[in-house]
TrEMBL record:
CDD domains: Ribosomal_L30. This is Large ribosomal subunit protein uL30m. It comes from Acacia crassicarpa. Residues 20-69 form the Large ribosomal subunit protein uL30-like ferredoxin-like fold domain. GO terms for biological process: translation. The lineage of its organism: Eukaryota, Viridiplantae, Streptophyta, Embryophyta, Tracheophyta. Belongs to the universal ribosomal protein uL30 family.
Length: 108
C-alpha cells in the first residue's frame, strides 16, 4: 500500500470532478458525529466505495472522517481496479515434466 500512498500524494484531489470514497476502517468505536457523517456519505460497510461530486461540503465531510476513509480520483480508482483485476486474472497452468527413471535391473 506504500506505493499507492505515494501515487495518491502526487495527484491533486481538488482538480477532479468526482471523488471515489472507500471506507477502510470499521465504524464501531467511532464518535457519533463520525458515524453520522459516514451515514450521510452512504458508507455503511467496510471496503465499500461511493462516488460523490467534488464540492466544498463533501470535502469538509471527508476532512472529518479522514482517518476512516481513502479518497481517490477517477484515474486512481480505475488504475487500482485494473491492478486488482490483473492480479486475479487466470494464469496458464504450471506444467512440470519429471524425467523418467531408467528401470532397475533385478539381478541380485
Amino acid at each position: 500500500m506504500d506505493a499507492f500512498k505515494a501515487f495518491k500524494a502526487c495527484v491533486p484531489i481538488a482538480c477532479s470532478p468526482k471523488l471515489y470514497i472507500t471506507l477502510v476502517r470499521g465504524i464501531p468505536g467511532t464518535r457519533r458525529l463520525h458515524r453520522r457523517t459516514l451515514e450521510a456519505l452512504c458508507l455503511r460497510k467496510c471496503n465499500r466505495t461511493v462516488v460523490r461530486q467534488n464540492n466544498p461540503s463533501i470535502r469538509g465531510m471527508l476532512q472529518q472522517v479522514k482517518r476512516l476513509i481513502v479518497v481517490e480520483t477517477e484515474e486512481m480508482y480505475k488504475a487500482r481496479k485494473q491492478k486488482e483485476a490483473n492480479h486475479k486474472a487466470l494464469r496458464p497452468p504450471l506444467v512440470i515434466s519429471h524425467p523418467t527413471r531408467p528401470a532397475a535391473s533385478e539381478s541380485a
